Amino acid sequence: xxxxxxxxxxxxxxxxxxxxxxxxxxxxxxxxxxxxxxxxxxxxxxxxxxxxxxxxxxxxxxxxxxxxxxxxxxxxxxxxxxxxxxxxxxxxxxxxxxxxxxxxxxxxxxxxxxxxxxxxxxxxxxxxxxxxxxxxxxxxxxxxxxxxxxxxxxxxxxxxxxxxxxxxxxxxxxxxxxxxxxxxxxxxxxxxxxxxxxxxxxxxxxxxxxxxxxxxxxxxxxxxxxxxxxxxxxxxxxxxxxxxxxxxxxxxxxxxxxxxxxxxxxxxxxxxxxxxxxxxxxxxxxxxxxxxxxxxxxxxxxxxxxxxxxxxxxxxxxxxxxxxxxxxxxxxxxxxxxxxxxxxxxxxxxxxxxxxxxxxxxxxxxxxxxxxxxxxxxxxxxxxxxxxxxxxxxxxxxxxxxxxxxxxxxxxxxxxxxxxxxxxxxxxxxxxxxxxxxxxxxxxxxxxxxxxxxxxxxxxxxxxxxxxxxxxxxxxxxxxxxxxxxxxxxxxxxxxxxxxxxxxxxxxxxxxxxxxxxxxxxxxxxxxxxxxxxxxxxxxxxxxxxxxxxxxxxxxxxxxxxxxxxxxxxxxxxxxxxxxxxxxxxxxxxxxxxxxxxxxxxxxxxxxxxxxxxxxxxxxxxxxxxxxxxxxxxxxxxxxxxxxxxxxxxxxxxxxxxxxxxxxxxxxxxxxxxxxxxxxxxxxxxxxxxxxxxxxxxxxxxxxxxxxxxxxxxxxxxxxxxxxxxxxxxxxxxxxxxxxxxxxxxxxxxxxxxxxxxxxxxxxxxxxxxxxxxxxxxxxxxxxxxxxxxxxxxxxxxxxxxxxxxxxxxxxxxxxxxxxxxxxxxxxxxxxxxxxxxxxxxxxxxxxxxxxxxxxxxxxxxxxxxxxxxxxxxxxxxxxxxxxxxxxxxxxxxxxxxxxxxxxxxxxxxxxxxxxxxxxxxxxxxxxxxxxxxxxxxxxxxx
Length: 943
Known about the structure:
It is found in: Cell membrane; Membrane. With 943 residues, the chain is an alpha+beta fold.
């Protein structure tokens, strides 16, 4: 009878499983009577008393009730929470001595964990891996919470929440304006900031400890404390192996294969309600792309380091909104004036049918300026007065973004108790110790006092650094070589298109082919630019994969001691390589193309070929096309496809190859399912930051050429937030909830880019665009103060008889052309100063120089003043932090005094808190209100 009931329950669960694959949150694990085994406390291999679970996770009634409500996150008794999972595999075909060594290391390690007070439970059933479940009891938890100075909430909050008070100052209209972007407070309630103090076991009367003490410390705090213990315990009894300790070293030595905290539940539709599912439904889901992020919930689930990343990404995305609006207005303005400006009208006028000099040697024909009408109009969309305004605006925007981010960062540090955060001294990396395992030179570390393997800098480390950065230089030159190859492709393709369109032997009787050739002839420059940009993007993608592997390999060879130093080193290397990879082709078009060209009859040659020249509309339109293709292509192909599409394809392939029945999936434990997820590496956020910082570089360094860049970046980032969130929730094991008060070295990189951007945009406006030549012509050379006649004034004459025989066009009829025009400011062939620069050229040269100097210095001074005027930490926040520190001291002093007098502190804690609320309540943050006193009261201490 019991077996029939069990079968009915299992069938019911399988039916529910059809609506939600991998559903483990709503199952009740049952076993036939013949399969039930008696729970027992067995002796582990190390001889200590631990709970062993070799059966299929037997549960009592309480545990079964918990499994109905959510994922099974407890030991077999249903009360002790699983705070960490250690996983390992036993290689059946491995060397016996290696298997025995790993077993002994795990035995010693686990014995030391039990000796520290941690409780272990084993799951050693047949499967992909064996598992050790770790629980930290209250006594160990409080001991290490005191050591690590974990902040916990006090019984009553004497401070009014800053965010609530600031929000209360907003008008109802503003609240209504932001209402559509707010999350539903019922499903994602606001987590109020509590007044916290560092935990002390002797002052537990201060803290708001609930009846269920296990829920007092947050789950991220529990896992962080367990990880702290795991990183310190030895796995060898040999005293000569000083660095045989820590879970990271054991994973590096393959004694364990993984160590991770469990996800709180399942995220799929139909799963029981849990924090992971709520985050997926209301944060990672694309349907919420326009909603504010629940940052406090992100922090409480993933920790401060990941919370700071998403805070920065969300803040950066919000700051793109005004830049996108201004850029869109500038673009619309350019579209409105593109067809009515005098330069575009003159080029498109058939009467001004100037015969232009060939674009390449020998095989390229003469061409008509009128044929580039569409190119000239398109160029005016991006090359106008609005471009200058937008470049200035973005220079200020970059500074404001960084300054306001520092204020936002300070606010989040306060809200998340990171204002007094200090990085703990990091132990040596396991890879560092492995590389120096045979080192015979040791040195006492000045902080830890431990003997560490020592590598002399000049004799051993310097040659490695020299070789490393030499390889980086070579890889940078490889990217520049790719750009030169693309330049050669552009020159060859343009010459081929010109020769193809001039071949009239096959088009005499074919009007369709003649029309096609005419269309190609008119847009040969644009077609060349687009295909070359796509080819450049392909090279960038290939080099990007190479650079990533090379940068990590080089950093590994440098034998860097700590993980932080390793991360900083790889950040600098990879950013430098990616900077050259992504920006070199754009820098070439912006600052070098057409600058050292020469003139007809005396062109400068490189590698036997003539250099490129800008089109009739200038190089800015080509820069815009190059920037748009690389920027959007990088975001669409390299980011979204690799982060979203590729994992789905891989998952689908795995499901097709290794099919599992739904019943088998349902019976898997949570730690088994989490083990199958991808491991969260130390560089999990590295690539995310790098992606956004490169985007920031596109927007600031070359924004004068592409005003729609901020809008494209805004749309991309709104999706990027959700894609990154979905990756952390659905694809990765739950990462360790690390604490970090800022974005680290990335801020310095962003600041450096913003400074370089001022110089970059100054030169783009001065050299790449025609803004300065048009301005000089209007002010000094125009007969009526307009741009009428500008096109003719900027085209010089060349006598075709001055061509050398090897460069002269050879097609039929070319000998009839006596003069051709080219884009430059040189004297005509009939003047005494033949082909020398004209007076107008030197006026424009001087104007460009003056503009660059004024632009740079003016922007630098103004942005410096902005940075000085805007404090890094809001004044009200400084006051709040000082007040909290003062109140914390006052509370401790008063309560300790009362305890010394023998009074019951628990009865008077509420009175003390109420007194603090009364004395220090403010109507507005940062401004104290004077508290009324009775005549017989002493002097007030209020500010």
